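My main concern about presentation is that the manuscript never shows what a single data entry looks like. For the editor and my fellow referees, an illustration may be useful. For illustration, here is how one protein appears when written out as sequence plus structure tokens:

***
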Amino acid sequence: MDQRRSVRDFADRPVPRELIETAIRCASTAPSGAHMQPWTFVLIGDPLVKHQIRVAAEAEERQNYEGGRLPPHWREDLAALGTGWQKPFLETVPWIVVVFEQRYGVRADGTRRHHYYVKESVGIACGIFIDALHRMGLATLTHTPSPMGFLRTLLGRPRSERPFILFPIGYPAENCQVPDLQRKELHEIMVEVTASDLARQGAPLHD
């Protein structure tokens, strides 16, 4: 898993649809609030639709990078990754999967059904999806062109759904390069707490 990287340079090599379907099935095993499974995975392989997504995404991203929507500190942090508003990979990849969060369900009679912990549930499903793709030898990127509302309109999704993440999916290009990022060490991200620790801190303990 430590070898997984987000990729922005993809090959146009075909990817069997069955692999993407399998990854989506894996994602659907995620736990969700009250087992509502509040996610929709929209699969796009049509070149025209991919082109429309690229045009719309680049229009939004250009406003972010050049139109002043991103604050200076955000642009400074992104500079190290070499990203910009151009997103050619949206047309290079054989597949795009856009994950939508279902803010609420709709029953057969048209009434609403409450969904619980939607963002948490969809986030877990997306993590499993990324893992499945990585284990297949495929690459992806958690692309979130902001704002993403255009995806709901372009892809004809209902008002009950909101775009969550866009995943371009394919094989890395032969000359693909990724930043030499270092992940935090275990001691930087994990803290073990014991009852003795809490007692020393004066935290109340209850049986």
